[in-house]
Amino acid sequence: xxxxxxxxxxxxxxxxxxxxxxxxxxxxxxxxxxxxxxxxxxxxxxxxxxxxxxxxxxxxxxxxxxxxxxxxxxxxxxxxxxxxxxxxxxxxxxxxxxxxxxxxxxxxxxxxxxxxxxxxxxxxxxxxxxxxxxxxxxxxxxxxxxxxxxxxxxxxxxxxxxxxxxxxxxxxxxxxxxxxxxxxxxxxxxxxx
Amino acid sequence: xxxxxxxxxxxxxxxxxxxxxxxxxxxxxxxxxxxxxxxxxxxxxxxxxxxxxxxxxxxxxxxxxxxxxxxxxxxxxxxxxxxxxxxxxxxxxxxxxxxxxxxxxxxxxxxxxxxxxxxxxxxxxxxxxxxxxxxxxxxxxxxxxxxxxxxxxxxxxxxxxxxxxxxxxxxxxxxxxxxxxxxxxxxxxxxxxxxxxxxxxxxxxxxxxxxxxxxxxxxxxxxxxxxxxxx
Lengths: 193, 231
Fold this sequence. Notes:
The complex is a heterodimer of chains A (about 190) and B (about 230). Chain A is mainly beta and about 190 residues long.
């Protein structure tokens, strides 16, 4: 009987030793998901170290010796990147832009023969990645709002959004400007899309 | 235990063989119980002793082995998911615990499927669809043994053997631990790990500050963490 027990015990031991061990996990997985939202950013890179998206162009005295508007040369962004050049990037492929021009005006009344308004034309230029420039033009006494989708992503180089001002004029070239402080604006809105 | 039983078998083996011989002589349908019949009375000379007609049984050795155990503890492998909207603004910092269960030194390797947070996208110059982040391993074994290392995901892409960090690391020295782990590959924990010490993997990124602009969309990376016994 003792032999039988010994054999049975041995058989059990052999079975235990030769059975495959329970499998252990040898790998695991960590997944990282994230999103980058649709947005546009004004960066502080470029010629203008100020990340503000704006500038001030001071034309000083507007009137000529006869009281009419003096000849104001076109103002190119290349000549004043600090105020007319910006760097804007968007995370989307075809940002939408809108450009609005508002004539320079002063509060004083302007009877016939006088003017309290100076109109101008503004070109907003958007450099496109891969080359090319999309330009939207507004005239304050004509089409004062323009815009649309850009043809591509905004270029990421320096000063990829620039504004040129030109064609300053009063409603009638013979108008005499009334005294006062004149203020106008160009507003550019860039939206991700 | 086995050796004791082998010795026992050797001691009693002649009884069994003798029993089998007896069975053969009376028929081939004996039950297993017959094996236990004692056919030699106490005091008989055992076979092989030189007394009478006998046979000598060569020893039967029974051999077996149990390999070192090494794997993640049951249900405690490094598994998990980070979901971080607007990670380019907020960054992220998440840690996943796991437990190594190895009876010897082990190695842990990590493979980043994309080498960073990635999305498929058409790109123009100045834009990118790959965002860096850091990965840290903190391994813990018995007796307070630890091993740490940190590399950015790009250093953990398959085949990469260097180690750099994108945001200063996620803990530990810059030691490459690109997987898959094997006996010589991966961060070495030079100790046993049998007491449930908690190890961890950490993924970390600060707000994105790269020169290229991340394009909008959903990004993903998958880290495969593997464990191997070490030489």
